[in-house]
Design brief:
- The chain is α/β, with parallel strands linked by helices.
- The chain folds into two domains: 149 residues, Nitrogenase molybdenum iron protein domain (Rossmann fold), CATH 3.40.50; 154 residues, Rossmann fold.
- Helix content is 40%, strand content 13%.
- The chain contains 14 helices and eleven strands.
- Strands 8-6-10-11 form a four-stranded parallel beta sheet. The protein has a three-stranded parallel beta sheet with strand order 3-4-5, with helices on both faces. A two-stranded antiparallel ribbon has the order 1-2.
- Helix 6 runs antiparallel to helix 7.
- The longest helix has 23 residues.
Length: 349
C-alpha cells in the first residue's frame, strides 16, 4: 500500500511538471461566437481591442481595462471622451482595412486578453487562432450584429468581470429596441422610405444587402436601395446607379458631402436631393449610424427614426443624448457640446 501511494505521488508530481507555463493561473473556458473554446486567465486586467467596434465596447464597459485605443482619438473626439482614457496610447488594429498592428506590438502591450467584435467568419477565426498561437494570449471573437447588442453587452460584461455594468447597459439597449419596434408597428410598409447610405467625401461608397454597416437602417424599417446590387459588405457605386435607385432619403457621415451634394448637378435628379432630405449622422466621439459599426449605433436609433419618419412623436434628442453619453461614454455633456454634436444633423432638437 505504501509503495502504491508513493508511486501515485511521483506520478502526480510528474504530471504537474508537464503542465504548460501559466496553466496554474488558468480560469474558465469561454466559448466565443465562432464556437472556439478559449482558455481564459483567472483575472482579466488588461484587454487589447483588435478593431474599432471592440475598442468602443471596451471603453463603454470597462475603460480601466483598456491597454489603449486602436487609433488615437482626434482632438474633437477627445472632447467627448472621459479623462484619463482619452489620452491612452494608440496601438493599431489587428483586423479589417488598414490593419497596422503586429505580433510584436501585441506582445509589448502585455494584455491578458484580446477581443474582437463584429462579423464572425472563417477568416476572423483563422486570424484569432494564429495570433493566439503565436502570442499565447487568449483571443476571443464576439458577434457584433446590431440585433444582438443586448446579448453582446451581457456576454462581454461577464467576460470582463463587470457583470452588473453589462446588465445595466443591456437593459438600456433592450428598451431602445423595444421602443423602435413599437414605433415601427404603427408605420405601414408603404410609408417607409427608400434610403441610400453614402460614405466618404463623394458619397459613392455604400453597404450592400447584409452589410454590418447598414444594419441600423434595416432595423429602423427603411429600405436600403443598395440591396438590389447584391449581398456583401461595402462597395463603390456610381452616381448613375444612385440616380437609377432614386432614393427618398440620403444618409451620410460626411459634412462636406452633405454640404455639396445639393449643389452638384449630377445628383439633381435624385428625389432625396430635390426634397432636401440629405441627413448627416453625428460622429463624435463615435458614429451614430456607422464608423464603427458597434454599440455606438444605439444612440443613432432615436435620431434615425426622427429623420426617416418626420411628423411623428419623437423623444427629446438633447435629453436622450445627454443620458446616453453619461451612461455609455462616462461624460456629462454641456449645452455647447450638444450644439456642436447635433449641428447639421437635421434631427429634432
Amino acid at each position: 500500500m505504501l509503495r502504491r501511494n508513493f508511486l501515485q505521488a511521483i506520478l502526480l508530481v510528474f504530471q504537474l511538471c508537464l503542465l504548460p507555463v501559466g496553466a496554474e493561473a488558468a480560469g474558465r473556458v469561454f466559448v466565443d461566437s465562432a464556437g472556439r473554446s478559449v482558455q481564459l486567465p483567472e483575472h482579466v486586467g488588461r484587454v487589447l481591442a483588435a478593431g474599432p467596434p471592440a475598442s468602443v465596447l471596451l471603453y463603454t464597459l470597462a475603460p480601466d481595462k483598456m491597454v489603449g485605443w486602436v487609433r488615437e482619438p482626434s482632438a474633437a473626439e477627445k472632447e467627448y471622451l472621459a479623462e484619463p482614457y482619452r489620452d491612452l496610447p494608440a496601438h493599431g488594429r489587428l483586423t479589417g482595412k488598414g490593419n497596422t498592428a503586429n505580433i510584436e506590438m501585441v506582445m509589448a502591450q502585455k494584455p491578458d486578453l484580446i477581443i474582437d467584435v463584429g462579423t464572425i467568419d472563417a477568416t476572423y477565426a483563422s486570424l484569432a487562432d494564429k495570433v493566439q498561437e503565436q502570442t499565447g494570449i487568449p483571443y476571443v471573437l464576439i458577434d457584433g450584429t446590431f440585433a444582438h447588442t443586448p446579448q453582446t453587452l451581457r456576454t462581454v460584461g461577464d467576460l470582463l468581470g463587470v457583470t452588473d455594468r453589462g446588465e445595466e447597459l443591456a437593459r438600456y439597449a433592450e428598451n431602445v429596441m423595444n421602443d423602435l419596434n413599437t414605433k415601427l408597428a404603427a408605420i405601414p410598409q408603404d410609408k417607409r422610405p427608400r434610403v441610400y447610405y453614402g460614405r466618404g467625401p463623394k458619397g459613392l461608397e455604400t453597404g450592400l444587402a447584409g452589410s454590418i454597416n447598414t444594419e441600423v437602417l434595416e432595423a429602423a424599417g427603411a429600405v436600403n436601395v443598395a440591396d438590389t446590387a447584391g449581398k456583401g459588405g461595402l462597395a463603390n457605386v456610381s452616381v448613375e446607379q444612385v440616380l437609377a435607385w432614386n432614393p427618398d432619403v440620403v444618409l451620410t457621415l460626411d459634412s462636406g458631402f452633405q454640404a455639396e451634394v445639393g449643389k452638384d448637378p449630377s445628383w439633381a435628379g435624385v428625389n432625396a436631393v430635390k426634397n432636401g432630405r440629405i441627413y448627416r449622422a453625428p460622429t463624435l466621439p463615435f458614429g451614430w449610424f456607422d464608423s464603427p459599426p458597434g454599440i455606438n449605433r444605439l444612440i443613432g436609433v432615436p435620431w434615425l427614426t426622427s429623420v426617416l419618419y418626420p411628423g411623428g412623436t419623437s423623444p427629446d434628442l438633447r435629453a436622450t443624448t445627454k443620458t446616453f453619453y453619461k451612461l455609455f461614454y462616462h461624460v456629462d455633456l454641456n449645452d455647447g457640446q450638444l450644439d456642436t454634436l447635433l449641428a447639421g444633423a437635421s434631427a429634432k432638437p
